[in-house]
Amino acid sequence: MNQQSILVSHAGGPEVMELGDAPIEAPGEGQVLVKIEAVGVNFIETYQRSGVYAVDYPFTPGTEFSGTVTELGENVRHLKVGDRVATSSGTKGYAQFAVVDENQLGKVPANVDLRLAAALPLQGMTSHYLTHSSYLVRSGDVILTYAGAGGVGLLLTQILKMKGATVITTASTQEKKDLARAAGADYVVDYNQVEATVDKVTKGQGVHAVYDGIGKDTFDISLKVLKRRGTLALFGGASGQVPPFDLQRLNAGGSLTVTRPKLADFLATDEERAWRFGDVFGWVASGELDVRVGQEFALKDADQAHRALESRKTTGKVLLVP
Ligand code: NDP
């Protein structure tokens, strides 16, 4: 049987993503077939599509999605047909169906909408590992992050507030600033106001940690506003990748720490994945964490979704609906 999926034949702009027919694969040992409800759009797919990250072509993007299990492969232990599931670590998700290893799937709580569940695993678990593992946030910390109305930004801000931090963030429009404030951010400022704001809020001491997903345009300021022994977690490059830099700057800045983490390394075991997935879905189920879907596109309009994300036109999560 065939399905519709997005195919990328070579690296390029959003226009290289075309809807086409592809076979529905059969689940192998320890795998299940998932009928996809919605797909989370993430920056990683723009890096893969454009050639910033190497992939083999033809390529179908899509790591994050939610759906229903429709078929089981051999020796599947924890899932059954009909289970509602979500993943941040699938492959070929820009499609109607995908085969996934069962240990990469988490069960969606009964009171969480299945489409909404596609908006959470990747950015939710990223916010979780940043705050719980890359730099463990403590009550009273002052934390700087950017793009407070973005997919990660809205979730990260709420989690930082749950942990008792003071949050300084940025946003480029008034609408985005209002969203970041509603998520709990204490100070929402223009990018050129970051240094002055940190100075004022911390009385010149600097912030305990910076979570920087903007990269090229913000890296220097991120290093500059850290307090002595502060930590910079550089987790993305929405404005471009950071060029090589002189390690002596960490010494001169006050024994600073810089880390360049990625989600896969913080889902290293089944236990770790279950912990992070359970926490973020549990917070949504209990109403502690609000997930905002800013835009939805039909699967065939994946190119428009990428254009919107890359041109700063989105807020919260962007979904594709097959
Ligand atoms: P967002 O929804 O945050 O979108 C990116 C936002 O960045 C924009 O809306 C914009 O907000 C801001 N921005 C500032 N400068 C630029 C620029 N030059 N071009 C585009 N956007 C810019 O995206 P995500 O939440 O999906 O991802 C945020 C970052 O997190 C990305 O860099 C992504 O790669 C990274 N990431 C990393 C992971 C990891 O494990 N390492 C996992 C998940 C995401 P504004 O207009 O308000 O400035």
Automatic annotation (TrEMBL):
All copies of domain Enoyl reductase (ER), residue ranges: 12-320
Domain of life: Bacteria
Alphabetized UniProt keyword annotations: NADP, Oxidoreductase
Alphabetical list of SUPFAM superfamilies matching this protein: GroES-like (SSF50129), NAD(P)-binding Rossmann-fold domains (SSF51735)
PROSITE patterns from the UniProt entry: QOR_ZETA_CRYSTAL
Record's protein name: Quinone oxidoreductase
Organism from which the protein derives: Glutamicibacter ardleyensis
